[in-house]
């Protein structure tokens, strides 16, 4: 709370400065999302289920401060500071290893005609495209595509985090429906320049159709044995009058450990009323391993999301999980989200 109070004081100073410098020259905004859920969770590989209350659910809770300053010639200075937090315990971060601003912490330059360059910790654009390509969005609890990519309990196939630190990113404007991004994350450790990450991303939007492509190379931290992973993601969404459809394919190749994966995902979002929708998603991953120790995993979720207002919604989700050579698992959960 002390950190929030300090930021609020800074915001007041920022607003006052904008008024002195001239209306419209700069702006600062505080915002965020708070979510809570309760579920009974059992993955296929777990011995027994667990009843838990968590901060997040469909979206991990966070708060942030963003701003921009017009410096003339169509150029703007932009910045963003965002912090994950756990409302069930009042602690910052997704876990004890997260820093204060572990969601985004960057400053950059933006031009409407030439795009934006960002310097600092920023969300990995592969994760942004994975969010786009599934009906459960960024959920690390209920989205089959996301949990099979990042969550250890689902044998997460993707090396690295949803955010990259020490990063430089270029984000192009949209031209003819196409937009692109390049991210490069340096190790920041002397003698470990070969442990850097690189991401290339291309998106296309034309009416009801969206297409997303991502390719990234991630190298392990300097404290672990050298490990490199190449990931390729391709998918599309189509919004028909009666439903929105999602599809994606993702492959990973860990070059030093001879482990790879192929993931296939399908999803749909069907409006039931003007303020509610049924969400359904399925993901299947075949993970290869040395000595013919291959595994397959099928995870599916179905949920109902209901808007109480423009900023608050409640939901209920059931997830099914099946790992080869293991009994199936089931997760039941309910939650609430509020945007501020």
Task: Give a short overview.
The protein has helices spanning 2-21, 125-132, 144-150, and strands at 26-41, 50-55, 62-72, 75-86, 91-92, 104-111, 115-123, 163-164, 167-171, 178-185, 197-206, 209-219, 228-239, 244-254, 259-273, 276-288, 295-307, 312-323, 329-339.
Task: Show the helix and strand layout.
Elements: H1 2-21, E1 26-41, E2 50-55, E3 62-72, E4 75-86, E5 91-92, E6 104-111, E7 115-123, H2 125-132, H3 144-150, E8 163-164, E9 167-171, E10 178-185, E11 197-206, E12 209-219, E13 228-239, E14 244-254, E15 259-273, E16 276-288, E17 295-307, E18 312-323, E19 329-339
Antiparallel strand pairs: 1-2, 1-3, 1-19, 3-4, 4-5, 4-6, 6-7, 7-8, 7-9, 9-10, 10-11, 11-12, 12-13, 13-14, 14-15, 15-16, 16-17, 17-18, 18-19
Give me the side-by-side strand order of the main sheet: 1-3-4-6-7-9-10-11-12-13-14-15-16-17-18-19
Order of helices and strands: HEEEEEEEHHEEEEEEEEEEEE
Largest sheet: 16 strands, antiparallel, barrel
Return Rg in Å: 21 Å
- Oligomerization status of the protein chains: single chain
Into which percentage range does the β-strand content fall? over 45%
User: Helical amount among residues, as a percent range?
Assistant: 10-25%
DSSP strand count: 19
Structural class: mainly beta
Cα-to-Cα separation, first versus last residue: 16 Å
Mean pLDDT: 90
User: Low-confidence stretches at least 5 residues in length (pLDDT < 50)?
Assistant: 1-23, 189-193
